[in-house]
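Slide 14.
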Amino acid sequence: MRARTHTLLRSPVVAVAVLMIGLLGLVSLSSVEAEEKEKKNKVAASGSETVVMTPVGAPVVLLSENIKTSSWTDLIIGVTLECSIITELTNVGNSTEEAEGQVRVWIEIDGNVVPVAENDMTDPGKVVFCNRLHRMTITDLDDEDAMFNTYLRTRSANAFNWMAMNVEKEPKIHTVAVLAELTTSATDGAAAQAIVGNRTMIIEPVKSAKQEAVSEIDV
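Slide 15: predicted structure.
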């Protein structure tokens, strides 16, 4: 009597089970690949060197990083930084003294400024992270030799997101830089400093809706 042999794959139930396992494996692999790709595309940079700027106000590069793009893409670029404004006024007799400091930040991709909105026409892309105007006026004082001195120092951490639309795939490696303009002004009896401390930049590729644009809304 000839013995019967069975091949499990001939069973429809087993065949379907094997097929499902294979598909799940492919889906799992695709998910892992997508996750790994996303991780590679995300870029982060940080710095802690303190920057103190003179009243000249020349642009300073706070952070710079390269990002690789394989196709047309949109980028969300988030920047956080600590900034401080220090002002000191000394009034002698009847007088007015004033000091001001400001830190403005913007993003450049391959040397091109990223605007805040599509209709951003005045100083495109520049965002005020901190600003202080300190003024003191003394009037009707009988003693002309009287002296008043005030000193203010604050420090805060602030953040802002820029949206870079339709970043070209060529060149494949783009340079994204965070720049700042630290300016001060003061009268003869005053002084001011604008300072940037710890800072970070996070670049995240996204896919926005087709023909999407960043627009300004009147409020």
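Speaker note: The CA atoms of residues 103 and 130 lie 5 Å apart.
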